[in-house]
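Notebook p. 47: complex prediction with flavin-adenine dinucleotide.
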Amino acid sequence: MALITRRHFARQMAFAAALCGRPVWAIGESYRLFDADKQDGAPPYPQTIRKLASQIVGQVITPGAADYDAARSIFNRAFDRRPAVIVRCGSPSDVARSLDFAKAQHLPLAVRAGGHSRLGFGMCDGGVVIDLSAMKRVEVDISKRVARAEAGALVRDLDTATQHFGLATTSGGCPTVGIAGFTLGGGEGRLMEKYGAACDNLLSAQVVTVDGRQVEASPKSNPDLFWAIRGGGGNFGVVTALEYQLHPVDQVLSGALTYPPGRIPDLLQAFVKFLAGAPDEMDAFAQLLPSEQGRRLKVDVCYCGDPRMGNDFLRPLRAFKPQDDSVKIMPYLEAQAAGGFLAAPVAHFQTNLFLRELSGAAIAAITTAINDAPATCKAIIVPLRGAVSRVSVTDTAFALREPGYEIDMAGVWNTPAVKAEVVRWVQATRDNLQPFSHGVYVNQLGDTSDQLVRSGYGPNYARLVEIKKKYDPNNVLRLNQNIKPDSASNT
Ligand SMILES: Cc1cc2nc3c(=O)[nH]c(=O)nc-3n(C[C@H](O)[C@H](O)[C@H](O)COP(=O)(O)OP(=O)(O)OC[C@H]3O[C@@H](n4cnc5c(N)ncnc54)[C@H](O)[C@@H]3O)c2cc1C
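Predicted complex, structure tokens below:
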């Protein structure tokens, strides 16, 4: 214990000296013998950081650097983490070197692509961040209708590149979400009823495994890994590039129908009926929003078929006389730019449950919850239907394959008092809806536990544990919705 404390102190001093621009102490490498098997988060020696910087094509950013604060900022401002080293990688080899560095230094490791994890998993305290944000090139093969994107690309990078050719694949509802975190966790978007989840359109991926190998994951190469990364998140390796199937997508009919306050149970029943008659081209989600006049329902739609026909399908929703109707024909990129719940980085807590149906009892529970909601909270109802629900549950790790509804409850804050209200409401709402629940969507969880992870993967959990044991037996990649290699695989 005394040795660990002494070593930690020595490293802290050397680190501080380096940041102040003074000569670093001459600390013998033999000193490191004391920490051979520990992963205690002690800061790395400045000279080892300099060595890492000399070995990569990307950039190493440490505390005190002018761009350190910008580099460590992530979308969910509830988290303010200070890593020891951010490696802004420029190539898969940089990723391999960074992995090696984190392991050799026994430091926690985070992987950051778009930085939109609800739990701030893309950043860590005192450890190493593999930052992929500089690797964002997207190439489109028009003849094969395939896009190859580096893993730091954002939704808007992928959409912009593919829409240039009148093509698209299922991508997220927020332009600044990273395609990597989004796809690896499943990937629900406005085209999922027609073309499936993002992970269903993944043709292959380049992965750096924790032992530093650069491998392909595809139906032919490492098919177990390919199965696992389609929903299993960042548990199995660091993905450096993703290849997607594209589809023709041009103008869409998109916008929102916002209803006057009140009538929420009737409107939700009408929403359910509307969905039952809607084709796969129709994507729609409902938001239960606060307003000064009371809680109101807003339905966002995006119809990717012939836009002129889309209006016919919207008749049942318009019959309920929305107060505001912004639905119109627009380019798909414009519909995507409209975004979802949060337009800008903010401290928030969002979590979710999956319901097989919106029964009268479930609607009553949701209505009660929204009527009690603090002003900065809302509920979002994302139907899962069409192509995304026609894939067998065991075909990919992403397990939400039954038709149903993902219910997200979320709130934002800018003071501790509001935070306490938000957290209380989100948790109470989840507890009240729990009896109706049959799973969760891992990508939209603002909290984590073994139970939640098991619930997210359902019948796929046991296979995921086996694949985790094979590719990351020491759980190096654990800042995620973690599949523990040593957990009992029975569900
Ligand atoms: C405003 C907002 C809107 C959203 N909208 C949607 C939506 O419409 N549909 C939807 O399905 N989800 C949505 N999400 C959830 C989103 O898909 C997840 O938060 C996702 O993990 C974000 O990915 P990222 O790359 O931006 O995040 P990061 O924070 O960079 O990464 C999240 C985690 O993913 C893993 N990861 C990321 N990149 C890699 C990689 N290259 N290799 C290995 N592991 C990696 C790591 O575990 C990492 O910690 C939204 C989130 C926000 C904040």
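Notes: The chain is about 30% helix and 20% strand. The pocket of flavin-adenine dinucleotide is lined by residues 75, 110-118, 121-122, 132, 151, 172-174, 177-178, 180-182, 184-185, 187-189, 233-234, 238-239, 340, 342, 443-444, 479-480 (CB under 6 Å).
Next step: compare against the earlier run before touching the bench.
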